[in-house]
Amino acid sequence: MVINTNTSATRGARFLADSTSNLQKSLARLSSGSKIVEPQDDAAGLAVSSRFDAQINRTEATRANIGNAISFKQTQDGYLAKVAKALDRMSELATMAQDETKTEADCALYEKEFATLGSYIHLIDTQSFNDVALFTGVSLKVVQQEDHTDKFESSGIDLALNSAAITVLAITNAGVAESALTEIKSQISAVAEYRASIGADLSRLMKTDEHLSVLSENLQASVSRIKDVDVATESARYAKYNILVQSGTAMLAQSNSLPQSALRLLS
Fold this sequence. Notes:
The chain is mainly alpha-helical and 267 residues long. It has two domains: 65 residues; 185 residues, CATH 1.20.1330.10. 74% of the residues lie in helices and 4% in strands. The chain has seven helices and four strands. It has a two-stranded antiparallel ribbon with strand order 1-2. The chain has a two-stranded antiparallel ribbon with strand order 3-4. Strand 3 and strand 4 form a beta hairpin. It starts with 6 loop residues before the first helix and ends with a helix. 22% of the residues are buried.
């Protein structure tokens, strides 16, 4: 029986310190919701999850770019739909102007609406999306992968050429109205082709957005498996260490009282 060195108390203090440290780690995991609270918890997992997080952010940024491209194309199609309606009306006016029962005064009335619709198409030709011209014929290049190495290029639409061909037309008499109608029919076909091309581009962009959404979802699931704490398992671990801390504290108190029994030998 010795009083200078209390081996039991030293050992008990070490066990208590270990249990307390584990209890604190478990509490930190439960409060943060993450298994990796500090780098030393899982150094490799931290490195992998950090790369995944960066890839997720790039993927979401790519989806934002694609969303803007979709809006750009939808805006183009919206304007072209109005152009198509204007051309339909112009073809109707050109047909009516070929009626030989109509006087030149009647044709002049048709010509006013015809010319107004032509100027309307010219106005649409100058429209822009976020200060980017819609109908200059310049192709639109869209990043479709988060690594920025692959780009989808949609064909540009040069509505200025169509507008120039339309604005010089007239239906002042049956003869010129017939020629105008031939050109208008050609322009109607051209606008239909433009809209079909936009539809194909929109389909491609939306499919790309969908697969990027799936990629982002899978990456987030991967990060979750690495970083997110299993609450059920960690709760059981927390309860275990909590009991160990309480029992360790009690046993340390008992160990510290053992040397007092030596005083009985001196009494």
